[in-house]
Amino acid sequence: MTSALLTPDDRTYQVRTFGCQMNVHDSERISGLLESAGYAPADEATEPDLVVFNTCAVRENADNRLYGNLGNLRSVKDNHPGMQIAVGGCLAQKDQKTILEKAPWVDVVFGTHNIGSLPVLLERSRHNHQAELEILESLEVFPSTLPTKRDSTYSGWVSISVGCNNTCTFCIVPALRGKEKDRRPGEVLAEVQALVDAGAVEVTLLGQNVNTYGVEFGDRGAFAKLLRACGEIDGLERVRFTSPHPASFTDDVIEAMAETPNVMPQLHMPLQSGSDKVLKDMRRSYRSKKFLGILDKVRDRIPHAAVTTDIIVGFPGETEEDFQDTLAVVEASRFSSAYTFQYSIRPGTPAGEMEDQVPKHIVQERFERLTALQDRISAEETAKLLGTRQELLVTN
After folding, report:
1. Whole-angstrom Cα distance, residue 21 to residue 297?
2. Are residues 293 and 256 in the same domain?
3. 55, 306, 385, 386: which has the highest count of C-beta atoms within 10 A?
4. Number of structural domains, the chain?
5. Residue 2, domain member (yes or no)
């Protein structure tokens, strides 16, 4: 039950973000919405009147982290009249009323498709003295139309699409964020220009799979064209993007990267596994040879490119031979760094129903071997920069 002791103009807020860059950018929108509704950022020394959790559902530890945080806030809320707690993001989209069953002191649960409803839901909960649950099954308004409070003046996120059309067996994101929806290039470029006009020198273009950008409006070459168009914006010094998919990564994008001076010589290319058998089981529509071929093409056109990746260890059915294939691809790829994850079962995914789940102690041991290998490669690649001069962007 929520007290109505404070009006929005008197209230402070804090947003706690778990998960990917999409969530980081969504949290900027949540902050913008709340400040437009009269809330003020909480001072670090005081308890906020509103805590918003923007959650992730990709791995099991994200669930544990949320419910642990909610448990810690229960006594805080008991001693803070008028305090509200809201839970949004992918885990909210997945768990829905389960959140209220596990943590009945939560006031609002909202999903990935209705961020813009948060201020109204908070007010309704405060007025009615009961929890509000609102989950939409599809996107009604593209979130980039919402007010946004940027974390940095000099570097900003720009969404070019939301959702995903892939069917990776380990991933629950398409079920939670829906099918891919693309913004028109003119809208994207207008937002980039507005950021530059406000002082930004770097933008990162965001999408679950940036390489399929444009398919929705019938232009399969739209992403490469978008990169080149960003190169024409005066004052924009650095352009990045994430994340591509190896299956749809095309030569025109490599050419655009190489020929557009402000596109950074950096590529995040998710590998997930170096085993062709595991890639097939993951329903990743490429194989290790294609993946390594992409890196060869990128480095042929951009010799100093820094390549990073994502890797999952312990996918169901992964054998020692499969894992050795992953180590071999990592050795050959020479990644600057890698985000390495231990596979965790996600209910609602095909992989979660697969037999031959790998024992946790084996997953842990393989994870340690992989990270040791990547740590060595990262150190070796970094050592090559000794004695060189590099340009850095340091922001607030």
Report:
1. 27
2. no
3. 55
4. 3
5. no
Mean pLDDT confidence for 132-144: 79
Tokens 């100093």 -> residue: 304
Same domain, 246 and 292: no
**The domain boundary residue, chosen from 70, 104, 134:** 134
193 Cβ contact list (under 8 Å, min separation 6): 233
Higher-confidence position of 145 and 350: 350
Q: Is the pLDDT of residue 1 over 50?
A: no
